Amino acid sequence: MHDDKQKSYCEFCNKLVYYYIESKEVSESLKEKKYIYNKKIAYCSECNNEIAVNKVRDYNLSMLYNTYRVENDLVSLKVIREIPKKYNIGIRPLSLLLGWGELTYTRYFYGYVPILRYSDIIKKIHDYPEYYLEILEKNKDNISRFAYDKSKYTVSKLITNNAINKSIVKQDLNKLKILYIIALIKEEDEDITFTSIQNVLYFLQGFNYAFEGMPLFNGNCEAYYHGVLCPFVNDYLSNNEIKIDVREYDSLVLNSLEFSIVNSVIKFFCCYSSEIIKRFVIFGNPWKNTVKPVLESRPVLESKPVLESRHIPIDKEYIKTYFLEIKDKYKINTPMDIKNYTNQMFESVQQY
Ligand SMILES: [Zn+2]
């Protein structure tokens, strides 16, 4: 599998030879300190002596410098390279804007490690568009009008978008959570009905109680003929179109435990038909206890029409108690164990 790219000069064989590469951990000095990193070493395929290969040497240098950056808390090359694109500015204008030599940023961009003071400035610019904008305004005379205009447009848009995202999250976390979770459910099963979505939300609410002692959303669940209604989502479902890019909000709306609860519930419930999911709901005590007083005084034949027209709020304590019980009963120690419950329930409800 050799090709010409894999050939390099061997001074022992005095010709171009194929080579192979091995890695080993080495300790090397840089600026009077030792750094440990994984170095690649090229060997001649014919005489097995170590030989010099340009691209291997470049790779090792970048590994050594990366280690150096990490251990000295210096800005990474990745961050340095992101900034011109992020703020829509050329490398040279950026350098001038910062009040540095015209080629300083260019050197950093191609791997030269900045001194600590410059490194801190680069990090701050990267993390805070507001700080970049401040510098852009202050030093705009260092760059062309055109470079200033296009960078200003980009950074202003970025700041506005960040502000919008933050205020949505802050003001309406509940709404965003619901939209986000519905989008996740639809990603798993695009044909799922609104009826089933609401039943799945009920289980999310319940399992969140079991793990975190509190509900995932604000608002009540209501028992009715097809399982559970979640009136708090009706506003969002009624427009029939959920426009949200779930990945944008991944870590924003749910903590990591909630995220695994949501993922497990979706995974272990959405694989069943809407009829089976409904049976999971109405086999549970919260639903049974809620409809019991309403149906008690009526003949069995009337139960269907009654529950089709009436929605009865489920007491939150019923939900909390029940899900804490099943967490115990089905040995649900982590969200992945929720399948113990669904597997078992599926056996029971099939015979219904
Ligand atoms: Zn050789």
Order of helices and strands: EEEEHHHHHHHHHEEHHHHHHEHH
**How are the strands of the largest sheet arranged?**
1-2-3-4
β content, as a range?
5-15%
General form? elongated
Runs in which pLDDT lies below 50 for 5 or more consecutive residues are none
How many DSSP E strands?
7
Assembly annotation: single chain
Tell me about the biggest sheet?
Answer: 4 strands, antiparallel
Small molecules in complex: zinc ion
- How far apart the termini lie comes to 63 Å
Question: Helix count, per DSSP?
Answer: 17
| Approximate helicity band | 55-70%
Keywords:
352 residues; alpha+beta; Ubiquitin-like (UB roll); 17 helices; elongated; binds zinc ion
Commentary on this structure:
- The protein has 352 residues and is an alpha+beta fold.
- It has three domains: 4-71, Ubiquitin-like (UB roll) (Roll); 77-171, no CATH class; 173-350, no CATH class.
- The chain is 59% helix and 12% strand.
- The protein is built from 17 helices and seven strands.
- The protein has helices spanning 54-71, 77-86, 91-97, 104-109, 116-127, 129-138, 145-171, 173-188, 194-212, 231-238, 250-253, 256-269, 274-282, 285-296, 303-309, 316-329, 338-350; strands at 7-10, 15-30, 33-44, 50-51, 222-224, 227-229, 312-313.
- A four-stranded antiparallel β-sheet has the order 1-2-3-4, covered by helices on one side.
- Strand 2 (15-30) and strand 3 (33-44) form a beta hairpin.
- The N and C termini lie far apart (63 Å).
- The mean pLDDT is 87.
- The structure holds zinc ion (ZN).
- Zinc ion (ZN) binds next to loops.
- Zinc ion binds at residues 10, 12-13, 17, 44, 46-47, 49.
